[in-house]
Amino acid sequence: MAVKMFAPNYHDIPLFKGLGREEINEVLHKFHGLIKHFPKSDYIYLAGDCIENLCVVMEGTVQMIKEDIWGEKSIIANLSAGDVFAENYLGKLSDHSEINRRLMCNIVSILADNNTRLIEKTEILCKKTLRGKIMAYLEQEARYNGSDKFTIPFNRTDLANYLDADRSALTRELARMRADGLISFEKNTFEILEHSHTE
């Protein structure tokens, strides 16, 4: 479905920074996404759902929520217009094996915090490296915390699951990124030393 859904406030979305109305419409048209609307407090995805789409928040806000075994909820992240989620599944979408589908099952619930509009992209053409996934996640956390130094809510096992990565590979890549001067960390506290858009 071709998307042409420019709204005046889209100028304020970081995703479209520097683009004019026609340019934004062209981007949305080429995106070929599915528009979805969610009223406040509706779940977009529940923990355990298999996510096969890249999602972009166009209007409203979204919360990522994790529940423990006692039913206690904690907010992992707050997403607003221009933010992207489910990007950690890039590169997996063309493989529909049963094992891969289980790997793509979400470990957090995703909730519309208020009336929300999303675009879901089902045809992903790019694939992020593990380093790209890590940096995308850490830069997102830095934005949410308003600082390049922050504490993440995941231990290494949970972070590996969230990024759809092998725990040992994640640990090795974090060490390499520290050696390369991109990040520093102590347990779950990270600091971004050099922002990167490495894919």
Account of the 3D structure:
This protein is α+β, with helices and mostly antiparallel strands and 199 residues long. The protein folds into 2 domains: 34-127, Jelly Rolls (Sandwich); 128-199, Winged helix-like DNA-binding domain superfamily/Winged helix DNA-binding domain (Arc Repressor Mutant, subunit A), CATH 1.10.10.10. The protein is built from 5 helices and 11 strands, in the order H-E-E-E-E-E-E-H-E-E-H-E-H-H-E-E. The protein has helices at residues 21-31, 98-103, 130-145, 156-162, 167-179, and strands at 34-38, 43-45, 54-59, 62-67, 73-79, 84-85, 109-112, 116-121, 149-151, 183-186, 189-192. The strands form 3 sheets. A 4-stranded antiparallel β-sheet has the order 1-8-3-6, with no helix packed on it. A 4-stranded antiparallel β-sheet has the order 2-7-4-5, with no helix packed on it. The protein is globular and about 45 Å long. The two termini are 27 Å apart.
